[in-house]
Specification:
about 200 residues, mainly alpha, elongated
Length: about 200
């Protein structure tokens, strides 16, 4: 029985990691360029940040329910879960990218312009490096939150460590609940510590 439980923990932990990594990859690909766009298009800030903020207020199960009927991105399974997790992860990445770049000292950008650098060069060589710590902080928050939120995936057949939690609640089995909750908590702690270490190593300040 213990061997079976250990195998299930490894399998469901792997499923959980796939959900989180898939969602975070998409969220980063969307969120960082989106945050950069917000620094260039003031008219979009209210709408994009507002949308991302509203998504944060929607309960996980309710968001799953709203997405399931939508063609191509909905349905029962991991696809709907990943879309939901991406939507939840967008706000901290969007906001921190925008705040990090917008917070770069204007005098530094003016000096770079005086040296003949183009807007693209200033972004790549000045603003993004100086905003690295803030951007990574947003990614870290989004990752830790996503690890926790992904436990709800089991409610719509998405797999992951939430399978143990739902099974344990249904059978009033604390062992099953702990089998899902403890690995999820450890993953969150490892992600927080690991990304924090990267943040300190990569940041120029």
């Amino acid at each position: 029985m213990r061997a079976d439980l250990a195998n299930d923990i490894l399998r469901l932990t792997a499923e959980h990691l796939v959900l989180v990594l898939s969602a975070m990859t998409v969220a980063i690909v969307i969120g960082i360029p989106g945050g950069i766009l917000l620094t260039r298009r003031a008219s979009l800030r209210k709408w994009l940040l507002g949308f991302a903020s509203v998504v944060q207020t929607v309960p996980s199960l309710a968001l799953f329910g709203l997405l399931i009927p939508i063609p191509f991105i909905g349905g029962i399974g991991a696809r709907t879960v990943i879309v939901s997790l991406v939507l939840y992860a967008l706000l901290p990445i969007l906001r921190n990218t925008f705040v990090g770049i917008a917070g770069v000292d204007a005098a530094v950008c003016e000096a770079a312009t005086g040296m003949g650098m183009t807007e693209g060069q200033i972004l790549r060589q000045v603003q993004l490096p100086l905003a690295t710590r803030t951007i990574l902080a947003g990614i870290r928050v989004a990752t830790v939150t996503t690890i926790g939120t992904a436990t709800i995936a089991a409610a719509i057949g998405g797999g992951g460590l939430g399978v143990f939690i739902f099974r344990g609640v249904a059978t009033v089995d604390s062992t099953q609940i702990l089998a899902g909750a403890v690995p999820a908590a450890l993953l969150a702690l490892l992600a927080d510590g690991g990304l924090g270490w990267i943040e300190r190593r990569v940041s120029p300040v």
